[in-house]
Amino acid sequence: MSRSLLVTGAAGFIGANFVHYWRRQHPQDRIVAYDALTYAGNRASLAGLEGTEGFHFVHADICDYDQVLATLAEFRVDTLVHFAAESHVDRSITGPDAFIETNVVGTHTLLKAAREHWLSGGSSSPHRFHHVSTDEVYGSLLPDAPGFHEAQKYEPNSPYSASKAASDHLVRAYLHTYGLQVTTSNCSNNYGPYHFPEKLIPLCLTNILRGLPLPVYGDGSNIRDWLYVEDHCRGIEKVLLSGAVGETYNIGGNNEWNNLDIVNLLCDQMDARFKADAELAGRFPDSPCASGGSAKALITFVEDRAGHDWRYAIDASRISTELGYQPAETFETGLGKTLDWYLANEDWWRPLL
Fold it and tell me: What confidence tens digit (pLDDT) does each residue in 36-45 have?
């Protein structure tokens, strides 16, 4: 049976990866990519799909109720996968209003339109509203505490995580109040291709190539569970195909690393690439690797972020046990794939800088 998917935030990092993944795995399905193309939305991330049969792009804001409803109706959407979000914690500290508007008001607008489209007049056509959230809604973990589980108390500590927590609650409310068929997934830190170069890994990766400082907050001891983006897409696929309506599934990578170790590993992998490929020195002459030095010379410790959560970790046992999900990549293999993608796609990331 073919589906008609509306993917919000489809030109963003995880959304674009999901669209490419779903297209490969389910070529018979229609995909409607919906994106406002704000600073982190890049239509170039959907290159190769534009103009192909069964793929449609809608340039619009999720806060535009009439446009959302019209899109749901025009393409007879039966599955909505909601990635669209403001997601950079630093930006939420300096400018929280955009996070409330997109993450809270935008999610509510989608829910209202979905309810009208699927449940109006007492009808209830088969449908699914899948909401993509974050482990940051749970707050911060102590060093020896077990990973976040689905029944974890919400304790958001930044405007970003608070706005995502609010959106999670709205999704739950539309299930229990109106009967909207929803699922939610909370993921750990993603990395991989098409990642806007403001987050730790793509920022450090592109800075190495340009010979710029690699900023590490505090002493670099903050710990995150890292999830290769295609493994995340695979987890969402499991939830859409087999997940129970109304349930939440945590998707993690089983990869806890502190920030300084991540940067050191990235430097080691980049050093090795330059030693193995003499052409890289000509392409990126400003990198210390080009002259035989190490990228580690660029590591720079900076003042810690306000309210910086110390540790996140996901307990992914539920999605593993119930839906058979396992990440395919280790952090080392996933990071290597990410690095190779950025080296091969300079024309994608260079204009963003």
Answer: 999 889 999 9
* 79-82 vs 128-134, strand pairing mode: parallel
In sequence order, which residues have a C-beta less than 8 Å from that of residue 88 and are 6 or more positions away? 40, 160, 198, 199
Please report, for residues 2, 81, 174, the alpha-carbon distance to residue 187 in angstroms, rounded to integers and kept in the order given.
Answer: 27, 14, 21
Catalytic annotation present for 315: no
322 is catalytic: no
- Active-site residue (options: 136, 230, 237, 329): 136
In CATH terms, is domain 4-195+229-255+307-331 a member of 3.40.50.2000? Answer: no
pTM of this structure:
0.96
- Looking at residue 184, what is its pLDDT? 98
**Catalytic, out of 34, 138, 160, 194:** 160
Neighbours of 11 (CB within 10 A): 26
Is 21 a known active-site residue?
no
The single residue of 35, 61, 78, 135 carrying the catalytic annotation is 135
Residues with Cβ within 8 Å of residue 51, at least 6 apart in sequence: none
3-state percent breakdown (helix, strand, coil) of the chain, nearest 5: 45, 15, 35
- Return the closest-CA partner of residue 352 out of 95, 41, 58, 98: 41
Maximal CA-CA distance, the chain: 69
